[in-house]
Amino acid sequence: MELGTQLLQYLLSGLSTGAIYALIGIGFSIIYNATGIINFAQGEFVMLGGMLTLFLLSVLQLPLWIAIPLAVLLAALVGLLFERLAIRPLRKASPISLVIITIGGAILIRGLAMLLWGKDTHSLPSFSGDEPIMLGGATLLPQHLWILGITVVLIGLNKWFFSHTISGKAMRACSYNPRAAGLVGIDVRRMVLFSFVISAAMGALAGIIVAPLTMTAYDVGIMLGLKGFCAAIIGGMSSGLSTVIGGLILGVLESMGAGLISSGYKDAIAFVILLLILFLRPQGLFGKPESERV
Amino acid sequence: MKQELVKYLLFTLCVLLAPLAFLDSYLLNVLVFVGIHTLLAVGLNLLLGYAGQISLGHAAFFGLGAYLSGVLTTTYGWNPWLTMLVAALLVGGMAFAIGFPILKLKGHYLAMATLGLGIIIYIVFNEWVDVTGGPSGFSGIPNLQLGQLVFDSDLKNYYLVWSFVLGCVLLSVNLANSRIGRALRAIHDAEVAARVVGVNARLLKVQIFALSAMICAIAGSLYAHVMTFIAPPSFGFNISVELLTMVVIGGLGSIYGSFLGALLLTLLPEFLRFMHDYDIVFYGGLLMVMTIFMPGGLVQGIPDLFRKLLGLRKGKGGSHA
Amino acid sequence: MLELQGITQIFGGVTALNDVSFSIRASDITGVIGPNGAGKTTLFNIVTGIYQQTGGRVIFEGSDISGMPAERLASLGMVRTFQNIELFGKMTVLENVMVGLHSRSSSGLFACSFKMPWALKEERRIRKEALHWLEFVGIADLADVTAANLPFGKGRMLEIARAMACKPRMMLMDEPAAGLNSQETVGLAELIRRIRDLGVTVVLVEHDMELVMDICDRIVVLNLGQKLAEGTPREIQENHEVIAAYLGDDE
């Protein structure tokens, strides 16, 4: 393959993985904006999406179009439980405790998944077959289109929810000023719960749509979660377009790096970017610097 | 600080005498690892418990110490003791340099940055096959030796490792009870106020980060020479989390607590062999339960439990190790 | 001793301070007053290195200290206390003051870990001096109490003791009388005078008018981010604009 086509290939697959990172990143941002917490368990919701769908398909023999929504629902339920059992008791705790408890939760979820479904990797069937589509010399799989399409829809839904529904606006109010939000009658705790439920659902869906391409196993959550976080950081923890761009940039850079430089060090790319952003521009590429009130 | 002296002497006594109870037992081997983990946990505790800075990548320093020492000794024929020194200084220096940008971050961001750093280093261990042997590991590392004494048995390694632990605990206890320890706790409690009265918080945090990394590197070097074989999985994110759990369970800011945490988390998997598949669930559950119900760790939780049961009140100030 | 030139601070869209300038004379007790929201604490935070001003300069004893971090200011002789007292809650009262002596001691990581004789000697000196400052503010009997358990008034005294341990040349106090009852406030006034007698220049931000009028040599009045007036207590009390700004005195 000549360089131009190669680059196009990397670009396309990069955009597709980037879309996944964007969805996961938005999940991080939603929770962070509502609660100030970084949910280390976010990656596990992604894992649950794929694994639950697999379980519903193979064990319960449900058709794909039922298994998927059900899996998302179940994952959202896990998110709810997580918030109730782990986060709510610790509302006043130090950042260290919050970090530790979300890590603990992540490990717990991962461990349970391993017990229930074993350590093997599995693949999910593609949504509409595996016939490759040619685009200017590069190959696209139908699943890539599903990924991009669903991502666009989800982001649109997200935007609509936060800008045009009462609950969405209430959640935004909580992120700007929880006390004021409480004073005008918003149930902040409910909004926190919502944020976890929505993030879990989005994460799960992200995990489902990418599983046909990258396989799924009990431990895919770690890397995906971290890279999603990276996307969120690039985007300045916004739950909108900035994080999407962050995810896409990350996906493309990773893909280019893996293809042009070395595939073994591919994962390191995301983390090098993460460190660079945290060191040089912690507010993300698009954010404004924060000032602390004393 | 008579109380401190007594505690330390008791600790030393137990450490020195313990092998007598386990001379022919497999447990002696496990106790060597308890020692290594104690070193790591104490190192991490100085950063996490005292200075209040979270690191999710400390296993990387452990690994750097192990690989530096292992590779320099085996591939290049250096003297093992020298490589331990070099590893400590190099890793300490590297941590010092990267400490400045990284410790500007706080809370979750710091956690993520250290996590990212740890993973990058882990990936290097895995990918740089020419030097590190990659995923299949690196073998042939010689044992340490002092003159004619070669450290090649569990008993000898026990005393080797635990000498280091005793030294490290002593120095850490001294540090914790000194002006530096106070300054660290001040930074942890109210960083702005500490800076306002002249504590150079930035520098101190970086210094402790470097010290902590050095201790982990030394532990890594010991590990390499005791095991004679090292592989990347021993230095990954899971290990960083284990270390974190040990420190949290033992009690943040308690040196002896770190020993307890290390002891518990190293011994438990041995006693609960059947738990092999359940270990991940167990760690996760343990972390969560401890954070919610016993945030001060065992060192605070157990005495508290006793006091509650006996109807006594909580105690005051006192020593800080 | 301290000169503020044209200090302006803009947060987002809000101008908290607009071109504020005045000077503080050495060995004075100067009060900065103004209605709530006047920008007093913001000004304080700028002078003490917690915020960086948007415009203007702060000159301390001839040097421009704008933008210097708080720990450097402490080494230059400037220390502050906080409105919401920031104590090291988990440490004892004595230890809190000992931290104040951190910048006037030097044993490093090595000396402390290995308990070198000079480190031990320094530790004894630190402890002795810390006790001295506790006696100075009158809470030496509480030396071993955990700081978080102190009643507010004593906590305020502790913060002052800790600040004094730095041997500052200038002490800035952010609403030291806040939360004190009238008896404690009288004690505070006397303490501030004793501090000044030691040669320390004191600047206070305060709402308690009685205290301010009683002990201050000069007063600066801020309102809505701007300097409204400056002068002796008598001059300020008779200034019509100041009276109008307050309209309905506190107390």
Question: What does this molecule look like?
Answer:
The complex is a heterotrimer of chains A (294), B (321) and C (251). Chain A is an all-alpha fold. In chain A, 73% of the residues lie in helices and 2% in strands. The model of chain A has no long low-confidence stretch (mean pLDDT 83). The radius of gyration of chain B is 19 Å and the shape is globular. Chain B has one domain: ABC transporter involved in vitamin B12 uptake, BtuC (Orthogonal Bundle), CATH 1.10.3470. By secondary structure, chain B is an all-alpha fold. In chain C, a hairpin with a 2-residue loop joins strand 4 and strand 5. Chain C has 10 helices and 10 strands. Chain C has 2 domains: 1-77 and 169-251, Rossmann fold, CATH 3.40.50; 87-167, no CATH class. In chain C, the strands form 2 sheets. A 6-stranded mixed beta sheet of chain C has the order 6-7-8-3-9-10, with helices on both faces. Chain C has a 4-stranded antiparallel beta sheet with strand order 2-1-4-5, covered by helices on one side. Chains in contact: A-B, A-C, B-C. The B-C interface holds B 171-172, 174-175, 178-183, 185-186, 189-190, 192-202, 207, 211, 316-317 and C 48, 50, 69-71, 73-75, 79-80, 82, 86-92, 95, 98-105, 107-109, 112-115, 119, 122-123, 126, 144-146, 162-163, 165-166.
